[in-house]
Amino acid sequence: MENIMKWIPRAVLALVLSAAAPGVNSEVPGGSFPSRPITIIVPYPAGAGTDATARIIARSMSERLRQPVVVQNRAGAAGIIGVDLVVKAPPDGYTLLLTTANTLTSNVSLYKNLPYDPGAQLAPISLVGNVPVVLAAFRDVPANNAPELVALAKAHPGKLTFGSAGNGTVLHLSGELFKSATGTNIVHVPYKGIAPSVAAAAAGETQLVVADLTTVEPMVQAKRLKILGNLGAVRSPLAPRIPIMADVGIEGVEVGAWSAMLAPAGTPETVMAVLGATLADTLRSQDVRDNLLKIFVEPQGSTPDQLRVLIDADTRKWRRVIAEAGIKID
């Protein structure tokens, strides 16, 4: 069960969600739910990747539930503001959360005064998608794959730098996990967002960058960056040519920028059943899958228990990485 990111994608990419039924509506267990609009809170700005994912999902769920499903952005404080809003909402199924891994896992170790306990105050519904996380290098770096990079870094300890979207982000932590697994000393350079970190690497300001495939790919096409490897547990269907770390003999590096849907803890089981079945049906839709793939999101689903196991496993993993790297958020 520790290797959850390897186990879950195999199940969910095949959409092993037998409990879900197509065409979910108010006739399924849950009585008259929903009888009014549902709000999905996204703890990030409008236009961000998670926001785009939520809007694709919301449109399809609205059709199936025969009620408006509205996306509201409540950004700020590394996602904490939006999550806290959902935690404090009535547990009736009308306020949901669509968020990314960090708000549910790494934030627990990074922020001493986190105003919520995601494990106790949120009820998992399902995974939604995953964005591949890749390690890329400036075109002139004399390494064309991860093993060559490890050799280069060990020959020049402390001389190479890698950029990320910011201190404490999952992308930063993924870079630290790579360093730990390979015994290398590569200096982290935080930027204010993914795009600036990728632009910096493409300009040669840093030798490396850990970022999502979506942002990196245009710079690869422009021959300003080269991808050294996928940091995920399995090869991505979006870029099957890119090897994962295990393919080249580097073990213990299995990360993903996944997103998931949750509800306030205490939401009735009948309502959770409606939401889970509707989301599963949505993720089976070819139109939804195609639209998610267009924005470099791999459609994924899960049972609530599978999502809970994933959250717990990633929380433990990032707690260890944060402690070993001495990462602190001011």
Residue share in β-strands = 15-25%
CATH superfamily of the largest domain: Bordetella uptake gene, domain 1
Radius of gyration computed on alpha carbons = 20 Å
CATH class of the largest domain: Alpha Beta
Q: Residue-averaged pLDDT, rounded? A: 91
CATH T-level topology of the largest domain: D-Maltodextrin-Binding Protein, domain 2
The domain count comes to: 2
Return the structural class.
Answer: alpha/beta
The helix content, as a percent range, equals 40-55%
Extract low-pLDDT stretches: 1-30
Helix count from the secondary structure assignment = 13
In N-to-C order, the SSE pattern is: HEHEHEHHHEEHEHEHEHEEHHEH
Oligomerization state of this entry? single chain
Supply the CATH architecture of the largest domain.
3-Layer(aba) Sandwich
Textual characterization of the structure:
The protein is α/β, with parallel strands linked by helices and 330 residues long. The protein folds into two domains: 196 residues, Bordetella uptake gene, domain 1 (D-Maltodextrin-Binding Protein, domain 2), CATH 3.40.190; 116 residues, Periplasmic binding protein-like II (D-Maltodextrin-Binding Protein, domain 2, 3-Layer(aba) Sandwich), CATH 3.40.190. It is 41% helix and 18% strand. Helix 2 crosses helix 11 and helix 8 packs across helix 13.
Which properties best describe this structure?
330 residues; alpha/beta; D-Maltodextrin-Binding Protein, domain 2; 6-stranded mixed β-sheet; 5-stranded mixed β-sheet; disordered N terminus
